[in-house]
Amino acid sequence: MKKVFEKPKSLTDVPFTYCPGCHHGIIHRLVAEALDDLGIAKDTIGVAPVGCAVLAYLFFDCDIIVAAHGRAPATATGLKRVKPDNIVFTYQGDGDLASIGTAEIVHAANRSEKITVIFVNNAVYGMTGGQMAPTTLEGQITQTSPYGRDPKTMGMPIRVCELLSTLNSPGYIARVALTKPAYIVKAKKAIKKAFQFQIDGKGFSLVEVLSTCPTNWGLSPKESNEWLEQKMIPYYPLGEFKEVF
Amino acid sequence: MKKVFEKPKSLTDVPFTYCPGCHHGIIHRLVAEALDDLGIAKDTIGVAPVGCAVLAYLFFDCDIIVAAHGRAPATATGLKRVKPDNIVFTYQGDGDLASIGTAEIVHAANRSEKITVIFVNNAVYGMTGGQMAPTTLEGQITQTSPYGRDPKTMGMPIRVCELLSTLNSPGYIARVALTKPAYIVKAKKAIKKAFQFQIDGKGFSLVEVLSTCPTNWGLSPKESNEWLEQKMIPYYPLGEFKEVF
Amino acid sequence: MVDRLLMRGNEAIGEAAIHAGCRYYFGYPITPQSELIAYMAKRLLKIEGATFVQSESELAAINMVYGAAAAGGRVMTSSSSPGISLKQEGISYITCAELPCVIVNIMRGGPGLGSIQPAQGDYFQATKGGGHGDYHLIVLAPSTVQELADLTIKAFDLSDKYRNPAMILGDGLLGQMMEPVEFKEYDINSIPSKESWALGSSHGREARTIVPFNLDAGEMEKINNRLKQKYIDMQKEAECEVVNMDNPDIIVVAYGIVARIVKTAIQKAKKDGINIGLLRPITLYPFPSAVIRENVHKAKKILVTEMSMGQMVEDVELAACGKAEISFYGRTGGVVISPVEILEEVKKLLK
Amino acid sequence: MVDRLLMRGNEAIGEAAIHAGCRYYFGYPITPQSELIAYMAKRLLKIEGATFVQSESELAAINMVYGAAAAGGRVMTSSSSPGISLKQEGISYITCAELPCVIVNIMRGGPGLGSIQPAQGDYFQATKGGGHGDYHLIVLAPSTVQELADLTIKAFDLSDKYRNPAMILGDGLLGQMMEPVEFKEYDINSIPSKESWALGSSHGREARTIVPFNLDAGEMEKINNRLKQKYIDMQKEAECEVVNMDNPDIIVVAYGIVARIVKTAIQKAKKDGINIGLLRPITLYPFPSAVIRENVHKAKKILVTEMSMGQMVEDVELAACGKAEISFYGRTGGVVISPVEILEEVKKLLK
Amino acid sequence: MAKVIIDRERCKGCELCTLVCPHKIIVMSKLFNQKSYHPAEQIDPEKCTGCAFCAMTCPEVAIEVYK
Amino acid sequence: MAKVIIDRERCKGCELCTLVCPHKIIVMSKLFNQKSYHPAEQIDPEKCTGCAFCAMTCPEVAIEVYK
Amino acid sequence: MLDEIIIAGFGGQGILLIGRLIAQAGMLEGKQVSWMPSYGPEMRGGTANCTVIVSSEEVASPVVSNPSSLIAMNQPSLDKFESLVEKDGIIIVNKSLISRNVKRDDVEVVEVPANDIANELGNLRVANMVILGSYIAKSKSVKMENVFRALEEALYRQSEKMIKLNKEALERGAMFC
Amino acid sequence: MLDEIIIAGFGGQGILLIGRLIAQAGMLEGKQVSWMPSYGPEMRGGTANCTVIVSSEEVASPVVSNPSSLIAMNQPSLDKFESLVEKDGIIIVNKSLISRNVKRDDVEVVEVPANDIANELGNLRVANMVILGSYIAKSKSVKMENVFRALEEALYRQSEKMIKLNKEALERGAMFC
Ligand SMILES: Cc1ncc(C[n+]2csc(CCOP(=O)(O)OP(=O)(O)O)c2C)c(N)n1
Ligand SMILES: Cc1ncc(C[n+]2csc(CCOP(=O)(O)OP(=O)(O)O)c2C)c(N)n1
Ligand code: SF4
Ligand code: SF4
Ligand code: SF4
Ligand code: SF4
Ligand code: SF4
Ligand code: SF4
Ligand SMILES: [Mg+2]
Ligand SMILES: [Mg+2]
After folding, report:
1. Is ipTM beyond 0.95?
2. pLDDT in tens, G57-102
3. Assuming Cys at both sites, which of B233, C111, C271, D25 could form a disulfide with D135, CB separation 3.0 to 4.6 Å?
4. How many domains is chain F built from?
5. Which residue, C38, C37, C4, C313, is CA-closest to C183?
6. Angstroms from D116 CA to nearest CA on chain B
């Protein structure tokens, strides 16, 4: 029998430190597969965020730097400008990218820095124990919205893809999910396309991945997948938002 | 004879320190007239930016605080939350609002803080002597784009109204200009409407005013007006972008 | 009788703040102080007219504090080391504008992202001014959960008294641990009125400004001089706990959680016939230099111990004016010093 | 022969950086250093493969520097006081990650927005660590335009040597003034290779990481200890100019532009029969404590003078170990000290 | 009948008012004011309709209109 | 004919693989692994089509598929 | 009196609650107490421990190098802390998850099949109460009635039934001492 | 030798250039020089001044309390700096814009109708060169030929005609001394 599915080479053997059922692991695999498929792992520099994925350097078998919270796009800019022939990607959570790092992602996208951003939207701050993220849904209970997110004082969830797509600069922007195999196949395609965009020197690319945080959602992995499908996808429609070069 | 036009009461007698022909003065007058017309000057707190308008406290006859560069929306949030019955407005340049203060404006708008933002887009950093702003036009020469803004490394000019209008929160957002009386009349209406929006407790309001910087553009006031009409307005269309409550 | 409650340090700070009339909180999550922001959310969102905002960043938080303080609100923010670094510009502004507010730093190992374990590496930043320009914070260093509560209340009062931001400098261990804590009656009416300077409606008075700058150097210097005078006036608030100082063989100087660890070392040392004196600065700015100076001659050796590479030790040396032989022992990165280590260090010095 | 060029201080820094092989600059405009960013734009945008980015903020700039340094680029950023405060978190990260880069601070009056006139109020921030955690920058304090150039080059070299960020601590006056400057031959090939640690393509080697943290306190402490050892090793780079020190009536300690003003005071004093010695620290970190210590006993009185409320004076006191009577004279807010004032202060002390 | 009063010391000589006056009855003075700008002045006040275009446009709020 | 190999020590017992298997031939073991999770295991390998849905879904990359 | 207790196990085993109840009970008895957790990024499967001090005097260091008692809920915890326990101290071992014997012979050891008993009681999650019951009975650090009170306060949002179950677990555990 | 010159006037009068040319000329002569501007937010209509030192020794303080020479391009500048000039120093006054007389009688005063001469030359903007010419002729601080060289370097982007005009202005000014 032939092996038809195995761990991609661009992942190390270190077991993930993520909670059971957390999609971070799937996203890691898809990124690693993209690096494998495109044969770019040895030329890739990853920028890990401050968030649950801060330990990503243990898992990806490529050069990695951990950026300050929210500043991954700036750090990636520095890397890419010095090493334009390398492939540079950031891997950022929603607190990291859409809250503290808002200015950095908007301006990196606007400058159309030739980097690829993997944006993990799990509607919560995972690492710090479940506080409200900019992407937390209306009414969602978190540590810092203990009575549910109230749009009157906390605003509505931010849709990053839609926001960034208004910028008049080259870019590839898509939103994907991972709750069923069909979605995963699409997610894989989008991530690969995003890296290809960079390889082709076309500019900035970003894939938003709707992700789960069973631990902080207080749900089982299965329930988390359901919640994602029933609550998140309607507010965060999947699809490609921009492809301009 | 009756006086049919005079300096609004909400302006002090201190002569402006702006350069000849600079639109900051017109914008000040329009804001002051709005305060007069709505009778809110004595209940208004202004937040001045770091930029040419840092001295606005000399000119407006209402309480004023000078915020850190880019952080006026955060400072305004603090003020408004403590004094919800006061009217709070920020007055910000394009460097201030669209560059260093990107995160603050996006999130204040998204929380729909009940503040009014007067956003002065003069396509340049005035105060510091004419560096590139996020709104500097393609090819425009500035101190830091001495060979013209090159979208390949510096990105395209950011359209703030369009960007903020994608947020799913209440808000009034408009763009105006001041190069002819008809525009000035419209600008006045928009600014008044923005304050009325706040008075009515409807949420965040922002008026972007296309403005000139003869000094740093290296043009006469007249040429500056022409340049604004011929170059800026086509890229930054005037109009109302959002009115949701 | 007041109840004793078993509370986490972080939560005790929050409850103390609310107790002291703090109704405005702006902050951003970070370990090991996230319980504090969560606590403020839980409490303030249920109080009519109060404000809890999870800001988009620490930078936004400190600038919201700036606005809220300018409007006369009793306001607090909190964070841990990296987040406090991000607030430096804002802190400098608030100090220049002479606005009162309380800033909590529950320190963790650094530099960089560091570790999330307890440390005291931000002493310089807190006491000398991590931001630009000549300014100082009032810096209080609690060592028990009760003191976290008490000094939080005191921080608000001192901050109002001097119109200067005050910082609670704790660490991850203090923030995370639980101890019994009591909240004594606090008279909210005793809070000084801010009517004479806060921004708001200007009916019946001239419009006011809060402008933390002056483009004229001479005028700016006047602001600096006013601040300097304030720092001089503040010196009288300096506080230091003095423990076991009759005839010590050696004096240990330590603050915060480390001072408590020293206390255990003192007990252990007694068994070995060694008498350790302890000087525990409670205010780190103003630094209790006078108390240090009066006491250092009581023993030949002075040991300063911190969970850092040695920061407060400089202030101790400055206070001692070359009149004592000062050694330093520190652990870093989040490693908590143990009583045994301190005792060993003491024995080494006494040899 | 090398040409003497009449250049602004800010531009001399820029030219020196390019001369030293710096090809990456990330910065944000601010008075009084905007000529530097403009200069870098003008020059770097014309050099193939070089990068000039006006970043969205100082925060972004320092984090771009972090990335560029990690990739092995010789990289610089610059700002003035408030902007430097915003960089504190990033600086702490870069230090922890042990990456080389040069940061220029052309100081202005503070705190807050302050004034835009020259000042020296950021000494503590620069030398003690304005960011969180235990770390130090290499801090160089030029006093002429020529030295701005020379020390900029030196900053790059020291930064590479120790893999530690280096700061040029200038002020608005130095940045704005023009003086003749020469650029001596610099061998770009002498720049140490970064191949052994920089990120990039990993063909033929294992993947590398740059992670400025460790969640395990013990492991984090190892990082701290490595840094500490580096700071000890660095002490040998300490530098101090010693002027007119045979038999001085009084010794003045000053750095940067103020030291030059003292030199004029020295000349003026001679006419009055007063002999003023000058100690001018060139490296502020490592601080030339040994030179200070060796020299302070040569006069009864020591005057430290700064354009601040008194910051370096603490390091002088620490170096002097209580062995000299130290006074301080300072101006703030952007007011530049005049030679006459210094002379008067000296006479007052000698009375 | 209308007229405008221009505060010649506030005026910075930007000329913007001269451009918008429908009757071209504002011109720049040959003289200097104290800040050494050539201030604007109204000629032919009879032609003034009091439309206030000039005043609306003036960045220095230096113009008052009477009608 | 296909089969899957599940790394029982990597598995964290999240059960996601059991949900996506079209033939419901992955179930959770009653036993603990060393991290005290109940790992997933394949039953009825004959029914396995090697579709790899399980592997694609596994957040721990604990599943290999052979065909 | 001075009791210094380290309680250790997997995250999710209710380690911190054990500690909290001892501290709370101590406080109810007018004693000085402190409770100090280990803390880290919230990730499942990690280990957790906390240190509790119950004392008649002011608690100085909340950090304890040599506890007088150890409650080991799993094997790694026993491995890590066994050697630190003071001479004549107490080690309570969760026999359900720890197969090896305690190596020290200068301490008192109590073995409690906490998980098994909890299972018998119908809820694995009360294993922590079983072992706490045993510790209280053995050490007499605080009174059981005060642990009950502490429990009621801590679980005030839970059902009567749940509280009852926890108390039952405490009592079952107390039989091992 | 040590010349310490303050040059002051309105922003826009070319004050900084006057200073720069003196410094540049001094440098060409192998002297030590420094040039220090006043600086502020770029707003028109403000005043500008700069201090230039030309010396045979190392320049210590670039800040000068008592200049040996003052070039006053407008009245506020004369008001501000007149009293500071050293005894026996030089004050060059732009007579076109300054109506009052210099009050000091212990300094040498030269009055130059700089704007008028510039107007005569057909370009108001060269008034600064007129006054500079006068200062050079009076003070002999640096050689005029070196000012010419400095001018050529500074205006290298300008037309031949413009450079010629500036030189002419310098020469016209030099007649006043
Ligand atoms: C400057 C700074 N602020 C705050 C933190 C604390 N912090 C660490 S991770 C994190 C948020 C993580 O949330 P997210 O980005 O959504 O990632 P996730 O863990 O959900 O994948 C925060 C606030 C920090 N390390 N640094
Ligand atoms: C933190 C910080 N960075 C930079 C500056 C310097 N600075 C002052 S104003 C300004 C930009 C002004 O441009 P803009 O906001 O467009 O306002 P304008 O002057 O054009 O009206 C800058 C960068 C500062 N004061 N503080
Ligand atoms: S906390 Fe949430 S995001 Fe983080 S690893 Fe656990 S489940 Fe995933
Ligand atoms: S610099 Fe530009 S924006 Fe500033 S006052 Fe002058 S013209 Fe206006
Ligand atoms: S009011 Fe109208 S007509 Fe009269 S001067 Fe002004 S613009 Fe001209
Ligand atoms: S618009 Fe105003 S400032 Fe401009 S010229 Fe006319 S009156 Fe003067
Ligand atoms: S490969 Fe397909 S059929 Fe086989 S076990 Fe996995 S999901 Fe089921
Ligand atoms: S998906 Fe993976 S981790 Fe989850 S139960 Fe299946 S094999 Fe285990
Ligand atoms: Mg998240
Ligand atoms: Mg602008």
Report:
1. yes
2. 999 999 998 999 999 999 999 999 999 999 999 999 999 999 999 9
3. C111
4. 1
5. C4
6. 11
